[in-house]
Model the fold of this input.
Amino acid sequence: MKKYTYSFEEGNKDMKELLGGKGSNLAEMKSLGIPVPSGFVITTETCKLYYKNNKSLTDEIRYQIDAKIKELEKISRKKLGDNYNPLLVSVRSGAAVSMPGMMDTVLNLGLNDESVKGLAKKTKNKKFALDSYRRFIQMFGNVVMGIASRDFEEILERIKDKNNIYLDTDLNVENLQNIVNEFKEVVQKKTKKEFPQNSNEQLYIAIEAVFDSWNNDRAIIYRRLSGIHGLLGTAVSIQEMVFGNMGETSGTGVCFSRNPSTGEKKFYGEYLMNAQGEDVVAGVRTPLEINMLKNQNLEIYKELVEIKDKLENHYKDVQDMEFTIQEGKLYFLQTRSGKRTAVAAIKIAVDLVDEGILSKEEALLKIEANSLNQLLHKQFCIKDLVKNNPISIGLAASPGAAVGEIVFTAVEACEKRCEGKNVILVRKETSPEDIEGINSANGILTSTGGMTSHAAVVARGMGKCCVSGCDDIVVDEKTKTLTVNGEEFVSGDVLSLDGSTGKVYKGKIITKDSELSDDFMKIMQWSDEFRKLKIRTNADNGNDAKKALEFGAEGIGLCRTEHMFFDVDKIKCIREMILANDLNSRKKAITKLLPLQKQDFKELFKVMTGLPVNVRLLDPPLHEFLPKEKKDIKELADEIGISQKKLKQKISELYEVNPMLGHRGCRLGITYPEITQMQATAIFEVAKEENIDIEIMVPLVGDVKEFVNQKKIIFDVANKVGISNYKVGVMIEVPRAALTADEIAREAEFFSFGTNDLTQMTLGFSRDDSGKFIEEYIKKGIYNNNPFEKLEEDGVGELIKIAIKKGKMERRDLKLGICGEHGGESESIEFCHKVGLDYVSCSPFRVPIARLATAQAAIRNS
Amino acid sequence: MKKYTYSFEEGNKDMKELLGGKGSNLAEMKSLGIPVPSGFVITTETCKLYYKNNKSLTDEIRYQIDAKIKELEKISRKKLGDNYNPLLVSVRSGAAVSMPGMMDTVLNLGLNDESVKGLAKKTKNKKFALDSYRRFIQMFGNVVMGIASRDFEEILERIKDKNNIYLDTDLNVENLQNIVNEFKEVVQKKTKKEFPQNSNEQLYIAIEAVFDSWNNDRAIIYRRLSGIHGLLGTAVSIQEMVFGNMGETSGTGVCFSRNPSTGEKKFYGEYLMNAQGEDVVAGVRTPLEINMLKNQNLEIYKELVEIKDKLENHYKDVQDMEFTIQEGKLYFLQTRSGKRTAVAAIKIAVDLVDEGILSKEEALLKIEANSLNQLLHKQFCIKDLVKNNPISIGLAASPGAAVGEIVFTAVEACEKRCEGKNVILVRKETSPEDIEGINSANGILTSTGGMTSHAAVVARGMGKCCVSGCDDIVVDEKTKTLTVNGEEFVSGDVLSLDGSTGKVYKGKIITKDSELSDDFMKIMQWSDEFRKLKIRTNADNGNDAKKALEFGAEGIGLCRTEHMFFDVDKIKCIREMILANDLNSRKKAITKLLPLQKQDFKELFKVMTGLPVNVRLLDPPLHEFLPKEKKDIKELADEIGISQKKLKQKISELYEVNPMLGHRGCRLGITYPEITQMQATAIFEVAKEENIDIEIMVPLVGDVKEFVNQKKIIFDVANKVGISNYKVGVMIEVPRAALTADEIAREAEFFSFGTNDLTQMTLGFSRDDSGKFIEEYIKKGIYNNNPFEKLEEDGVGELIKIAIKKGKMERRDLKLGICGEHGGESESIEFCHKVGLDYVSCSPFRVPIARLATAQAAIRNS
Done:
């Protein structure tokens, strides 16, 4: 016979999966000797079975619940629904992972028209009994019977108004009796049913209601947004009620063992006397700071402090606790790990190590790596922020805070920047042509494009604030206007962007710089002690590289050479090259490019002295370099001396239906070997003069013969330049490359997984277009995450594993890295650790995340 | 010590890889007792080594050649380069696979200023000796020394003119001596070197020249175009010369044991007396039909017939032979399998079985399956064809012959068709909107797009002639003109298209229908006896299905439902649906579509009574259905009552950067479940009334949950309609689907490999764009074939194997098929057989190819 119910005495903190976080911690507290009202837990498996059974409880489950209720009656010497000595219970939800406020709870269950009298008589406190009863009817009526809270609140307010009462606690017996009567009438009216008087019936429908709340909309959304998957359901805790509303010697509160916002080691919390839990958050009476309790009841305060210390020591983590004082006696109703900000997480972790509570390994695991993001970018002053309402919300594409005048073109952005102004670049979507504009802007706002759109990727790479895919903004680049909810903004109007929340504000909000604390540096150092993976960065200029080195990068994992081509001088040569009609004129154009390209590398390589630098050959389709606007086409046509018609024709010849799968990557270097020659020459000639470990990476290889073709060109150039200390390898981003990795490894010295493109091709998701359906997919549970954010392991990950296995078989010392966006995301990094990569590479601002995440992966999998 | 040389006595016909086709067959003939001049073969491995050694022959190779020459001198009792009794040899190329005329040959080697005198004295025929010498100088001068043939021909013509001689054979000794002298002067002048007089030197540089010719341009191109890969190189046959130019009792000829054009069992060939081999093809003297030899020399004729019968019986195949008669004695110089037309291949195969020479299995293997294509479409009358020169050549995208007035829009095509005119639709490229136009046209001509462009795929599907990617044609759809090489054609001008060659002709060329012979039907029946795979067809209307059934299809493997949506009524509803702002209006539009869609299925299902029909749910991105032209946008906006601006906005919202990887396939059915509901309803309501095995296929699945989502909708509809006898499965075309096939197979009853898309994603090749670099790739040997034509086995094939393995592990009776273009290509079909598919599905006109290819695969792998 399956066991569906566990009394607290039968559980412990390691049974979260089965008993939920709340249930298992109640059991644990019980075993620690902490005063916890008696009770039992109905398991999460029961919830699953409930759904499987078309939302009904089997006889066996009911039987086991009844047995536990009997036990509880025995312990409490009370009886559920009894007219003289009624047992009152709370019925609370609690899944394995905390979902605060998302599911339902019923308190004071067991009261009815008769038992309320018994309770009054027994406690000699009619007011308390009626107060409990009116609370019960409202909560049960709302949660279980589906009546709007408003319907009850109105009655309460009316009666308070009528009697000139401000606080609930000032209601007298008569008031409360009237409220109870009217509450029951509302129930009758709204549901055409009496308020249930049978307490067993109350119990069962309350349990069912809690199970039902597992799948209410907000719970589903919360799980989706929090990335919670694979749970069985919610557990239900049934616990004897203790009452904070029995008068001024009673009360209730919530507290944290340390400050969850700053991490300061200071008891933190608030409480209310003569109240039940919901009053603390309701906001009519302002709760008191926890240290006020010292004055009110020193004994209780001391006990509280003692227990919170005990719990923190026991759980080795900040605790978030609920307690109730019933007529001078303290009870604990909940304890759990406290949610905290990134700042707090770091301080707490360091302090707990200093205090000898945690080992360094344990401390590192307490910090959510991805949350470090919050610490590295400019931030808004919270005080100023809360005063303003956002005018729109888009995707939080790249964190940070930006304030500036809006502009609609890259040129405008550069111009205003030169005038010393702060600028926000507003575009429908950005393209590589906008790169200088992005560089000049403080923040980027786009109306389309997802978390990995061009704007988002580039902005994150530069550590620049970006809000992308801001759907309800209409950008008209011609008239240079931005319209949102009927309000129009023009060039020069000021907006503020919060890249950490995706919110867009009108006007200026005050910002402040982020500061990296000593504690932060300590966490980074500890991380370095444990991590196995090296950390590199994706950077293609000296500034980015410098920033990354400050953050702790140990090399460059991806230097994209195409970004270099977008400044005015270079794009001219590139365009000339693309439009060349024969090899000679192409070579001529390329020759002009060589010294410019060398200059780029010079700056970068100088910064990276002594470290490995991986340079990727030209990757994007050539038409990305060609002008799109009429004006630019005219200009270019004049410049290179061909007709506009001819130029347009050339541009349209280069048009591709699916550029992602088109003429790009090494396909360019194969059809135009001169490009590879020039790039290799630039790289080697500079590398020869600088002290760096140079690696050249061939992109978009699908067949080893493509690589061999390019390697030969690179090799010949190296010979000519007279350099021998370099590596040539492959970016693995085409599924076929992974599937034929054995052949490729025979020729290539390293693999770097380009997981952006590998995801696109393995899943058949265009990064630019998939926003349209991925959201729907996540909503419907088809994918748990956006695969461009978290590495998709069953398909993309499988290909990576195949590639590693086949590759290592042919070349034992094959160097392995990742340079897609996933290289800076903690779960993906753990995957990289597990499959045995040598390094991850990510944008400079994600280097600290990668340092911590690699350490966590090493600790978790040691 | 490696053996580099084999005398004919040491070889046999199974040593082709090593001795080349020519060498191994000479050896075989020798062993059959057929008169073959003595000689030996230098192996193909030697050729490889030659290239490895920077194009030089090692001492060991030279030593072995010298030894064989000594043997030959012993047998012939002559001596190479001897002044009195010279040995003359031929030096011929010959790879394992026949590459007729692509590589070099030198005849009469061993002559010099002295030995020619010896030859004259020995044969008492000075004229013959000088004739041989002038031939040798010309051939050696051209092939080995690189002098243009023209330089020699001019001398020859001049001397003939001067002496009023028409035929070479009429040159007298003096003429010939002058020719020899002038030839030698040309050599001196052009190369600044004497014509080599040392015969050993002649021999070595001739051998090297033959090896060099392995990698001359035309040989490389030939191998590429013929799909010949992986050979070591060419062998070289060195053989004692026999002379057809010794007077009127000597001669030379080529012959086939049967007619290679019709297959008729009739000795076929031509010959010339007093001539050497090259004279037969040179065209100055018209060769005689082979049966004329009967009158000239009955003995020799009889011997020839006897030997050709012997060879055909021995090789069990039509032989293509070369012979020489030297002073009344017959010698065979070559035999090989005769190249033949598809018609001939069929007749010969059937006849050889009837004659008891071949088993059915052997006969089937003699026919090249892909060549059946030639037999199924309308054809031009060869006689009329050769009178015309093409004005352009594009890709032979879909075979057949089409003549008609050119039109530039689908609408025009339909109109002219209604007037009873034959039409050729000319477009830059076609889109799904053109479908009715394509249907109305006799042929399609596009200036861009490859072998698998929209036009090509649709045309092949319809068995319609198509020439695509006709680069040098400029199509201006606005002015409705087509310009090629400065000549302009307008609507109504007549063109003729040859879809089997890609040639485009001005004006009308006479066409004829193809007729399927009884022999053809017999081959089909025999194929059915051996094949293991079932054959289905890709068809989405009754006409195509009927055609396919005639050709022997056993079901439908892919009914694309989107083609159905392009006629006027339906596209209106589809557009209304796409443009709907809410669920209700969308549902309204879809409801209108239901009866129309049912009508489509009714027609198709009726034709397919008793057979399986696989219907794929809507697949293409929705914007394909929206209008692109200004006029059409206006019309549609008026019709559905929204502003043009709004409509344009909607269209631009649906724009995708990479539509191939965008919002399409099951992603549509998931975001708009109403579409799947409607389609399933239409399918089931019709299927219920007809007797067919219905299969519903969900496209573009990448995760099992996508499939489960769609299956649930289909299942619910089936329940509602009251049908239970159906299957639901998945089109495997996303790499991730293959990688997670185990999970998918738990839910899906069948897999059908959509190898077009699977190729696109696995290789990262956009079908529409890859033409730009695939040609270059094939040229550079990176890919051997266009992967959209022949299934790419290392990547795409590997994923198919993974999918099958994982799928079968979960579901033993998983039904497996292929529905990509590869399902009608013989090598790909062999792959399908080997990996254990249940059926292949291809366009109707490829069904016969598939029948034969599946049989061949079964026979080859039994």
User: Anything to note?
Assistant: Chain B touches chain A through 49 residues (CB under 8 Å).
